[in-house]
Amino acid sequence: MDDDNGNDKLNKFYSLSENENRKIRMKYRNHIEGLPDVNSPDKLIEIIESVDELYQKVNRTQEATLDSQFLLESAEIGAKQAESMKLAGENFDTEDWINKLLTIMGGRHDIKQEDEDNEENVNLRSLKWENIGIRAEPFFDRVPKIDNMIGPLSTEQKEKRSIVRHTRENKNSVNLKKPQEIRKEDIKEQENETTKNVFQIGEILEQKGQVNLFEFIVNPDSFSQTVENIFYLSFLIRDGKALLDEKDGELIIERTDPPDEEDYLHGIKKKQFVLEIDENTWKEIIEVYDIKEPMIPTRPKVQMNNSKWYGLQ
């Protein structure tokens, strides 16, 4: 029965419509925008509890990203409120403290204003300092320390052995291989391969028009090629040949013309696209977006010949 209930809840979350997910994102944004106005810990706790209830409906990466943003900003607000808090209590009165000490030690019960000039004449030896010790003793109770034995134990001096160092020889030195030498031709070949793949992805993006970022870059058949797609796409975005924007809570990618010198003069700046993804997130994206076929075709695998990597043609 518990498994059935769990599956029912899971199916309920995954069956949320796009309109319901949009409302969840809107509530998250409202909470995030309202955080700077929170001026009390009680109000902050109230908002966090509200977001906890909202998180129970989150089942996609987009809403989870907003939840992470809220946690970071609410943590900063909470830290600032904690720093501004002060312990309630009265100020420490040194004069009152000294009066009470004198009372305990059998001295005067009060230091009057007119006696301040004669304070140096107080006979400290007449005070019963042991009374302070009796009062403080319970707070310093501890287990008695361990004393040393009267005499040392008999010990025998161990003779140090001389260490003879030998040069280590590898018996199989004949079979050792030299480190692989990387030549300029190999680096050039790799650069050409990267340039070719970046160009091909740019052409595919131009054919697709505006498309969801995850549906475009994710290869459901290969996690490694998904990572490669992100790497190649980053060059298009860096060079201004692709535009990444948010529309209705989704990340949309599209082909665009690179900026010219006039655009740079008007203040446009290049930005590098960096997206971290692990295998669990990759599987979750495939399930949420129901990706069956890759938009970017699977590239041929590579093989190694003569200790060098070459792409299969």
UniProtKB/TrEMBL annotation:
Whether Cell membrane counts among this entry's keywords is: no
Task: List residues of the Non-structural maintenance of chromosome element 4 C-terminal domain.
Answer: 210-296
State its location(s). Nucleus
What keywords appear on the UniProt entry? Answer: DNA damage, DNA recombination, DNA repair, Nucleus
Task: Provide the primary localization.
Answer: nucleus
GO annotations of cellular component type: nucleus; Smc5-Smc6 complex
UniProt keyword annotation of Cell cycle present = no
Residues annotated as domain Nse4/EID protein Nse3/MAGE-binding: 67-120
Question: What GO terms describe the biological role, i.e. biological process, of this protein?
Answer: DNA recombination; DNA repair
Q: Which family does it belong to?
A: Belongs to the NSE4 family.
Subunit structure of this entry?
Answer: Component of the SMC5-SMC6 complex.
- Role according to the record: Component of the SMC5-SMC6 complex, that promotes sister chromatid alignment after DNA damage and facilitates double-stranded DNA breaks (DSBs) repair via homologous recombination between sister chromatids.
Specify the protein name: Non-structural maintenance of chromosomes element 4
Species per Swiss-Prot/TrEMBL record: Neocallimastix californiae
